[in-house]
Amino acid sequence: MPPRGVKKGTKRARQYSKIKQSARKRGASTSRAKEIAARTVNKKRSQSATSRSTGQTKEQLYNRAKRLRIAGRSSMNKSQLQRAVAAKKR
User: Fold this and answer.
1) What's the Cα-to-Cα distance from 57 to each of 28, 67, 78, 82, rounded to whole Å?
2) What is the full DSSP assignment across the chain?
3) Domain range for residue 66?
4) Which tens digit of pLDDT belongs to each residue from 20-48?
5) Count of domains observed in the chain
6) Given this model, what pLDDT does residue 36 score?
7) In Å, how far from its chain's centre is CA 10?
8) Average pLDDT over the chain, rounded to an integer
9) How far apart are the first and last CA of the chain?
10) Model pTM greater than 0.90?
């Protein structure tokens, strides 16, 4: 059973099942496999919700700038990172 907030038949529910099976194959106990799967699915859900919202932390913006290969990102402050990421996405 997927963690709370994840509906049956959704992509997250399928991910939960697949991660749980993978953990069991690696030798984790049933309860540990469930925990690993739930934490992973919740983490991904949290990350995707955060990336859509405008309230990103400086660290999140920095990581996004890194993925977008924005030069000079290490010396930028939060507002500069926001502008650079927004400009690069266009």
Assistant:
1) 34, 16, 8, 10
2) -PPTT--TTSHHHHHHHHHHHHHHHTT--HHHHHHHHHHHHHHHHHHHHHHHSS---HHHHHHHHHHTT-TTGGG--HHHHHHHHHHHH-
3) 55-90
4) 999 999 999 999 999 999 998 888 777 66
5) 2
6) 93
7) 17
8) 87
9) 40
10) no
